[in-house]
Protein backbone atom coordinates (compact mmCIF):
# COMPACT_ATOMS: atom_id res chain seq x y z
CA UNK A 1 0.00 0.00 0.00
CA UNK A 2 1.34 3.40 -0.93
CA UNK A 3 2.27 5.90 1.74
CA UNK A 4 -0.67 8.21 2.42
CA UNK A 5 1.15 10.95 4.26
CA UNK A 6 1.67 14.09 2.22
CA UNK A 7 3.05 17.07 4.09
CA UNK A 8 2.99 19.41 1.09
CA UNK A 9 -0.66 20.35 1.60
CA UNK A 10 -1.59 18.90 -1.78
CA UNK A 11 -3.89 15.98 -2.33
CA UNK A 12 -1.94 12.88 -3.36
CA UNK A 13 -2.65 11.38 -6.78
CA UNK A 14 -5.17 8.56 -6.68
CA UNK A 15 -2.51 5.97 -7.35
CA UNK A 16 -0.69 7.08 -4.19
CA UNK A 17 -3.69 7.66 -1.94
CA UNK A 18 -5.10 4.14 -1.72
CA UNK A 19 -4.53 0.63 -2.95
CA UNK A 20 -6.60 -0.59 -5.85
CA UNK A 21 -6.70 -4.30 -5.10
CA UNK A 22 -10.30 -4.34 -3.92
CA UNK A 23 -11.95 -6.22 -6.78
CA UNK A 24 -14.70 -7.55 -4.54
CA UNK A 25 -15.71 -4.00 -3.61
CA UNK A 26 -15.70 -2.45 -7.07
CA UNK A 27 -19.41 -2.42 -7.99
CA UNK A 28 -22.46 -4.55 -7.30
CA UNK A 29 -22.17 -8.01 -8.84
CA UNK A 30 -24.33 -7.13 -11.84
CA UNK A 31 -21.70 -4.54 -12.82
CA UNK A 32 -18.58 -6.31 -11.55
CA UNK A 33 -16.18 -6.98 -14.42
CA UNK A 34 -15.77 -10.51 -15.67
CA UNK A 35 -12.61 -12.23 -14.35
CA UNK A 36 -10.88 -11.46 -17.66
CA UNK A 37 -11.55 -7.73 -17.19
CA UNK A 38 -9.60 -5.48 -14.88
CA UNK A 39 -11.24 -2.75 -12.84
CA UNK A 40 -9.78 -0.25 -15.28
CA UNK A 41 -12.00 -1.61 -18.05
CA UNK A 42 -15.62 -0.57 -18.30
CA UNK A 43 -17.94 -3.57 -17.92
CA UNK A 44 -20.28 -4.49 -20.76
CA UNK A 45 -23.41 -2.48 -20.22
CA UNK A 46 -26.75 -2.67 -21.94
CA UNK A 47 -29.12 0.26 -22.26
CA UNK A 48 -32.42 0.25 -20.42
CA UNK A 49 -35.64 2.05 -21.24
CA UNK A 50 -34.51 5.20 -19.46
CA UNK A 51 -31.28 5.25 -21.50
CA UNK A 52 -29.02 4.68 -18.49
CA UNK A 53 -26.50 1.90 -18.40
CA UNK A 54 -27.67 -1.21 -16.57
CA UNK A 55 -25.99 -1.53 -13.20
CA UNK A 56 -24.86 2.09 -13.12
CA UNK A 57 -26.34 4.27 -10.39
CA UNK A 58 -29.12 6.49 -11.75
CA UNK A 59 -27.90 10.09 -11.91
CA UNK A 60 -28.28 13.42 -13.70
CA UNK A 61 -25.83 13.56 -16.68
CA UNK A 62 -24.18 16.76 -15.41
CA UNK A 63 -22.94 14.98 -12.28
CA UNK A 64 -20.55 13.00 -14.45
CA UNK A 65 -19.24 16.24 -15.94
CA UNK A 66 -18.60 17.60 -12.43
CA UNK A 67 -16.63 14.52 -11.41
CA UNK A 68 -14.62 14.66 -14.64
CA UNK A 69 -13.69 18.29 -13.88
CA UNK A 70 -12.58 17.46 -10.34
CA UNK A 71 -10.53 14.43 -11.33
CA UNK A 72 -8.94 16.32 -14.23
CA UNK A 73 -7.83 18.95 -11.69
CA UNK A 74 -6.17 16.14 -9.66
CA UNK A 75 -8.53 16.63 -6.71
CA UNK A 76 -8.90 13.62 -4.44
CA UNK A 77 -12.60 12.68 -4.34
CA UNK A 78 -14.04 10.17 -1.86
CA UNK A 79 -17.57 8.98 -2.54
CA UNK A 80 -19.95 9.32 0.39
CA UNK A 81 -23.64 8.98 1.20
CA UNK A 82 -25.69 7.12 -1.42
CA UNK A 83 -22.69 6.05 -3.50
CA UNK A 84 -21.10 3.57 -1.04
CA UNK A 85 -24.60 2.36 -0.13
CA UNK A 86 -25.16 1.55 -3.81
CA UNK A 87 -22.16 -0.81 -3.64
CA UNK A 88 -23.99 -2.75 -0.93
CA UNK A 89 -27.17 -3.10 -2.98
CA UNK A 90 -29.17 0.07 -2.29
CA UNK A 91 -30.90 1.16 -5.50
CA UNK A 92 -31.30 4.78 -4.42
CA UNK A 93 -30.88 7.26 -7.30
CA UNK A 94 -28.09 9.77 -6.92
CA UNK A 95 -29.91 13.01 -6.03
CA UNK A 96 -27.69 14.48 -3.31
CA UNK A 97 -24.17 13.80 -4.55
CA UNK A 98 -21.88 13.82 -1.53
CA UNK A 99 -18.14 13.83 -2.04
CA UNK A 100 -15.57 14.02 0.72
CA UNK A 101 -12.72 16.34 -0.24
CA UNK A 102 -9.47 16.77 1.75
CA UNK A 103 -9.85 19.96 3.76
CA UNK A 104 -6.90 21.69 2.08
CA UNK A 105 -8.49 21.11 -1.37
CA UNK A 106 -12.10 22.03 -0.50
CA UNK A 107 -12.04 25.65 -1.70
CA UNK A 108 -10.13 24.69 -4.86
CA UNK A 109 -12.65 21.92 -5.62
CA UNK A 110 -15.52 24.36 -5.18
CA UNK A 111 -13.79 26.84 -7.50
CA UNK A 112 -13.43 24.11 -10.16
CA UNK A 113 -17.17 23.44 -9.98
CA UNK A 114 -17.92 27.16 -10.22
CA UNK A 115 -15.73 27.40 -13.33
CA UNK A 116 -17.71 24.51 -14.86
CA UNK A 117 -21.11 26.19 -14.30
CA UNK A 118 -22.12 24.56 -11.02
CA UNK A 119 -23.16 27.61 -8.93
CA UNK A 120 -23.10 27.72 -5.13
CA UNK A 121 -26.34 27.23 -3.28
CA UNK A 122 -26.57 29.46 -0.24
CA UNK A 123 -28.95 28.35 2.47
CA UNK A 124 -30.82 30.79 4.71
CA UNK A 125 -29.47 31.02 8.22
CA UNK A 126 -32.83 30.83 9.98
CA UNK A 127 -34.51 28.07 7.95
CA UNK A 128 -33.33 24.93 6.24
CA UNK A 129 -30.37 24.20 8.51
CA UNK A 130 -31.38 20.53 8.47
CA UNK A 131 -30.61 20.54 4.74
CA UNK A 132 -26.95 21.43 4.97
CA UNK A 133 -23.84 20.01 6.56
CA UNK A 134 -21.80 22.48 8.56
CA UNK A 135 -18.65 23.32 6.61
CA UNK A 136 -19.83 21.71 3.36
CA UNK A 137 -20.07 23.63 0.10
CA UNK A 138 -23.17 22.89 -1.95
CA UNK A 139 -23.48 23.40 -5.69
CA UNK A 140 -26.51 23.32 -7.98
CA UNK A 141 -26.68 21.01 -10.98
CA UNK A 142 -27.96 22.59 -14.18
CA UNK A 143 -31.22 21.31 -15.60
CA UNK A 144 -32.60 20.05 -12.31
CA UNK A 145 -33.90 21.56 -9.12
CA UNK A 146 -33.44 18.34 -7.14
CA UNK A 147 -29.85 17.24 -7.73
CA UNK A 148 -27.14 18.92 -5.69
CA UNK A 149 -23.44 18.34 -5.27
CA UNK A 150 -22.19 18.66 -1.72
CA UNK A 151 -18.46 18.92 -1.11
CA UNK A 152 -17.90 17.81 2.48
CA UNK A 153 -14.59 18.35 4.32
CA UNK A 154 -12.90 14.98 4.82
CA UNK A 155 -12.17 15.83 8.46
CA UNK A 156 -15.90 16.17 9.14
CA UNK A 157 -16.42 12.48 8.35
CA UNK A 158 -13.68 11.22 10.65
CA UNK A 159 -12.38 9.17 7.70
CA UNK A 160 -8.71 9.16 6.72
CA UNK A 161 -7.43 8.66 3.18
CA UNK A 162 -5.63 5.56 4.44
CA UNK A 163 -9.09 4.10 5.14
CA UNK A 164 -10.16 4.30 1.49
CA UNK A 165 -9.71 2.21 -1.63
CA UNK A 166 -9.65 3.19 -5.29
CA UNK A 167 -12.78 2.12 -7.19
CA UNK A 168 -14.67 2.97 -10.37
CA UNK A 169 -17.39 5.54 -9.79
CA UNK A 170 -20.88 4.09 -9.24
CA UNK A 171 -22.30 6.24 -12.04
CA UNK A 172 -19.30 6.62 -14.38
CA UNK A 173 -17.18 3.44 -14.17
CA UNK A 174 -14.50 4.90 -16.43
CA UNK A 175 -13.68 7.45 -13.69
CA UNK A 176 -11.64 6.23 -10.71
CA UNK A 177 -12.32 7.73 -7.28
CA UNK A 178 -11.91 6.67 -3.67
CA UNK A 179 -14.46 4.96 -1.44
CA UNK A 180 -14.42 4.11 2.27
CA UNK A 181 -13.09 0.59 2.80
CA UNK A 182 -15.90 -1.82 3.61
CA UNK A 183 -16.05 -2.99 7.21
CA UNK A 184 -14.21 -6.23 7.89
CA UNK A 185 -16.37 -9.33 7.90
CA UNK A 186 -16.41 -10.91 11.32
CA UNK A 187 -17.14 -14.62 11.47
CA UNK A 188 -18.79 -16.16 14.50
CA UNK A 189 -16.42 -18.36 16.52
CA UNK A 190 -16.79 -22.10 15.89
UniProtKB/TrEMBL annotation:
Q: What is this protein called?
A: Uncharacterized protein
* Polar residues: bias regions: 1-19
Q: Where is this region: Disordered?
A: 1-60
Regions of biased composition (Low complexity) lie at: 35-46
Amino acid sequence: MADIENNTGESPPLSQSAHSGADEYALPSKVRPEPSQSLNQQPNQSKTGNDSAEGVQDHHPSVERALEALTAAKITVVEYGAQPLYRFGSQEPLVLVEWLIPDESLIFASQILLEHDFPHILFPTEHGLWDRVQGALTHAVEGTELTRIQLVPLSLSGLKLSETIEVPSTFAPELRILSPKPPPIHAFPD
